[in-house]
Amino acid sequence: MFSHLVTPARQILTGNLLMIGCCIFYIAWWLVAFHPTHAIKGFKSGWLLIPAFILGVAAAVQLIRGAVGSTPQTQLMPRLAILIGGVVVYGILLALTYLLLKRQITSELVLLVGWTVLMFLGVNALYASGIYSISAAVVFLVISVVAAGIGIVCYLLYYDLDNVKGYIDGLIPLVLCGAVMAGITISAAVSGSQA
Questions:
Q1: Model-level pTM greater than 0.90?
Q2: Are residues 163 and 36 in contact, defined by beta-carbon separation less than 8 angstroms?
Q3: Where are the alpha helices (DSSP H) in the chain?
Q4: Ramachandran sector of residue 130 (left: φ over 0; alpha: ψ -120 to 50; beta: rest)
Q5: pLDDT at 17
Q6: Do residues 40 and 29 lie in contact, with contact meaning Cβ atoms separated by under 8 Å?
Q7: Residue 73's CB: how many other CB atoms inside 10 A?
Q8: Long-range contacts of 105-113 (CB under 8 A, 24+ apart)
Q9: Which residues have C-beta within 8 Å of that of residue 29, sequence separation ≥ 6?
Q10: Which of 8, 9, 63, 77 stands the most exposed, by the fewest C-beta atoms within 10 Å?
């Protein structure tokens, strides 16, 4: 799969597919474990988190390998700047959401920021590999930021919503993350085949 692409781009797109699989299992878990009227708790639904975790870790490894394997001289932005930016943004969001807005700290915040960092690394590597033009790269970076921003809004609203609205609210970031990764994967595969 993606054999017509250079190795870093192949690794990025493979990582995206693995992350889409992670999202699918996470969505399946959310759908059954947080159903407003028929929630299935414990290991009867929790087992879905095992493949989600395995696919998520495998995806992160592939995305990082692709990012590290791309040529630094042709990157849109330095990888280190993306990583440092992610840590800084997480620190700011943690302070704002917890200290200022009094939102309980949960893993979703680090997952959203981590996902955004991986998207930036991936798009950066696709640009460095010649798959994306600068305009295509910027478009997907902006789309990633918008998706993450919507995810942060959902993160902030969750505990103030009733069961049904909270159930829907929790699905929105997962669906958006999967959709963005699918869009990047499809567009990069098409662009790479035309290069």
A1: yes
A2: yes
A3: 7-33, 43-46, 49-69, 79-94, 107-128, 134-157, 163-194
A4: left
A5: 96
A6: no
A7: 6
A8: 106/155, 108/151, 108/155, 108/173, 109/152, 109/155, 112/148, 112/151, 112/152, 112/155, 112/173, 113/86, 113/89, 113/148
A9: 45, 46, 48, 49, 52
A10: 77
178 in Cβ contact with 28 (< 8 Å):
no
What end-to-end distance do the CA atoms of the chain give, in Å? 16
- Nearest alpha-carbon partner for 15 in 126, 92, 94: 126
Tokens 């662009």 locate to 191
Do the beta carbons of residue 62 and residue 14 sit within 8 Å? Answer: yes
Six token digits for residue 143: 């789309």
Q: pLDDT tens digit string along 82-124?
A: 999 999 999 999 999 999 888 988 999 999 999 999 999 999 9
Q: Other C-beta atoms within 10 Å of 27: how many?
A: 18
Find the radius of gyration of the CA atoms of the chain. Answer: 17
Cβ-contact 8, 125 below 8 angstroms: yes
* HSE-CB for 174 with a 13 A CA cutoff: 19
Half-sphere exposure of residue 30: CA atoms within 13 angstroms, side-chain side: 20
Burial status of residue 105 (CB atoms within 10 A of its CB: 0-12, 13-18, 19 or more): exposed
